[in-house]
Write a structure and sequence with these properties.
22% helix; seven-stranded antiparallel β-sheet; alpha/beta
Length: 566
């Protein structure tokens, strides 16, 4: 259904990716009339036309495809991502039209702007958080705030989202990584089984398991959006770059949004009883900061002064190599094949070296990898790619603000990312690289390179490459592994039990503006070692039930005493 900008909707949802697609499904199925605003274009089948087949080549540095995308697609930042793919490149932004600013440590912001957002480019690994995470993770050792929810509060919503999406995985019985609900089993390659066995033999506490993941969506449009369309209660407006959330001066409640047409650059206003921000971590915080007014001089929902504060990602480390004892590659048929996207699947080693080990840092990391899955020529050693994801502790000084002068192509002030590594993160990164190399060599992996944003652990990389390509690789490596490379950014609008120490309540509801909800990863309090995608989908479904109940009772359309600082 196309959007009618002259009417008032029950709810506006900003963003159509992981959380936005779940939000529109949950709200419309509960009877609300919803307007979905997406900054980018709609998608068509033509966007997923498979490229012409090319000869399978040995693993290499691959500078040419990156250079081509940097110039022709104007993506000098997006091409820096570690696992570059020409298939996902079209679903990432034009960096020149969508700039951002960094102050302090470099930050790599990988972004998608079209219907579905980063659902078209993410790795599709979907893992549950545990009470280790909701208790504050390693940050407990440094006084970090605990989440206002427990695993038991989110568990039924994990079930609901997993059953809807249809995930593949196994029930592994690991307390640190709760089992989910799966439509089919996930498998490991021979090389991955060998790695898992050798790792467990040497470190009995480390258990390698198969990924838990979503298969590619052959319908392309996010499943949640499709479900919402079936209700007849969803209107969609793509090419809608939201500039700010509007506030009714009489009630103090949010009453809609102002957006700019991406193509015509004309400004429009839309009205609703409820506003849900699902625009992604940095974008949602940016919107709150850009929505300041006389009532909210420091940004919307910011009476605590914490909007933008405690921004985090995970500490990324990368290792590539090969396994001569496992030549070639295996085709994983656990899930249905897709004509455009490669099959998902791989090896996951949960929490390694958690806090309390007496080391020079607190925190732990997980390793996610693929072994014997990347196509290589016959009889060539099987390719190995491993990425470590470490716990980055929440620090008040790490934050998102808006730039006082610079704007994007639509005149919207751009985000400025202030982030720095502490001694704890640096020590953890060094241990990630050391530990990943140790595990790889223990499993007979011939390591090509290993490193992080702190640098490579050896100058000997890609021995068969030409000297110029090797030099470029070495020079650019730390930028590819900058903070942000994990693509698990979170925080900036944290949940909590106290409006003085948080932006949102336990139902993702803004303390200052009761009909404003933020359900993407900006709501995170601490960041563990699993990706946030499944958790924010579950939190979104949970919040939507609350929205529907409160809206039906009329509590989101009238000013409530004591809620808005009366």
């Amino acid at each position: 259904m196309s959007a009618d900008l002259s009417r008032r909707y029950d709810a506006i949802v900003v963003g159509s990716g992981a959380t936005g697609s779940i939000a529109v499904k949950e709200l419309t199925e509960r009877g609300l009339e919803v307007l979905l605003l997406e900054a980018g274009p709609d998608i068509t089948d033509a966007d997923f036309t498979p490229p012409p087949p090319e000869p399978i080549r040995p693993m290499g540095i691959g500078l040419y495809p990156r250079a081509k995308a940097a110039v022709l697609r104007r993506q000098p930042i997006q091409v820096r991502r570690a696992f570059f793919s020409e298939k996902t490149t079209p679903f990432l932004v034009d960096d020149l039209k969508n700039p951002y600013s960094v102050k302090g440590q470099d930050f790599l912001w990988v972004r998608g702007r079209q219907l579905g957002g980063r659902l078209h480019s993410y790795g599709r690994v979907l893992l549950r958080s545990s009470d280790y995470d909701f208790d504050g993770g390693a940050g407990r050792e440094r006084g970090s705030q605990r989440w206002p929810v427990r695993y038991s509060d989110v568990e039924p919503w994990y079930d609901r989202v997993e059953e809807f999406l249809g995930l593949y995985g196994n029930r592994d019985g690991l307390p640190i990584l709760p089992d989910g609900t799966y439509v089919g089993a996930a498998s490991l390659t021979k090389a991955e089984r060998h790695f898992a066995e050798r790792t467990h033999e040497r470190w009995p506490e480390r258990q390698g398991i198969a990924w838990r993941y979503a298969a590619p969506n052959p319908q392309r449009v996010p499943l949640g959006v499709l479900a919402a369309r079936k209700t007849g209660r969803l209107a969609t407006r793509t090419d809608a770059v939201v500039r700010r959330i509007t506030i009714d001066d009489r009630t103090g409640l949010a009453d809609g949004a102002v957006f700019i047409d991406r193509l015509t650059k004309r400004e429009h206003q839309v009205l609703a009883d409820v506003v849900m921000l699902c625009a992604s971590t940095i974008e949602s915080v940016r919107l709150l900061a850009n929505s300041g007014s006389a009532r909210h001089p420091d940004g919307l929902a910011n009476s605590s002064g914490l909007v933008g504060r405690y921004f985090m990602d995970q500490t990324p480390a990368l290792l590539f190599g090969d396994m001569p004892d496992f030549p070639g590659w295996e085709d994983d048929t656990s899930a249905p094949r897709d004509e455009y996207f490669s099959p998902a699947g791989g090896l996951y080693v949960p929490m390694i070296d958690a806090f309390g080990t007496g080391s020079e840092f607190v925190g732990g990391y997980a390793v996610q990898g693929v072994m014997g899955r990347i196509p290589v020529p016959p009889r060539h050693p099987g390719a190995v790619g491993m990425m470590g994801f470490g716990e980055m502790l929440p620090h008040r000084e790490n934050r998102i603000t808006v730039h006082p002068r610079r704007t994007d192509a639509w005149g919207v002030p751009i985000p400025r990312i202030h982030i720095a590594l502490t001694d704890n993160e640096r020590a953890l990164l060094r241990e990630q690289v050391r530990g990943m190399r140790e595990m790889a060599e223990n499993a007979d992996v011939r390591v090509n390179f290993a490193g992080s944003t702190l640098g490579l652990d050896s100058r000997r990389v890609f021995p068969d490459a030409d000297p110029v390509s090797r030099a470029i690789f070495r020079a650019s490596f730390t930028k590819s592994l900058a903070i942000g490379a994990a693509i698990h950014e979170c925080g900036g609008a944290r949940m909590g039990d106290d409006p003085a120490t948080s932006v949102l309540n336990p139902f993702n509801q803004a303390w200052d503006v009761p009909n404003l909800f933020v359900t993407d990863a900006s709501c995170y309090v601490t960041n563990g070692i699993v990706g946030p995608t499944l958790t924010i989908m579950a939190l979104t479904a949970r919040a939507c039930e609350h929205v529907a109940s409160e809206h039906a009772a009329g509590n989101l359309t009238r000013r409530r005493a004591g809620t808005l600082g009366e």
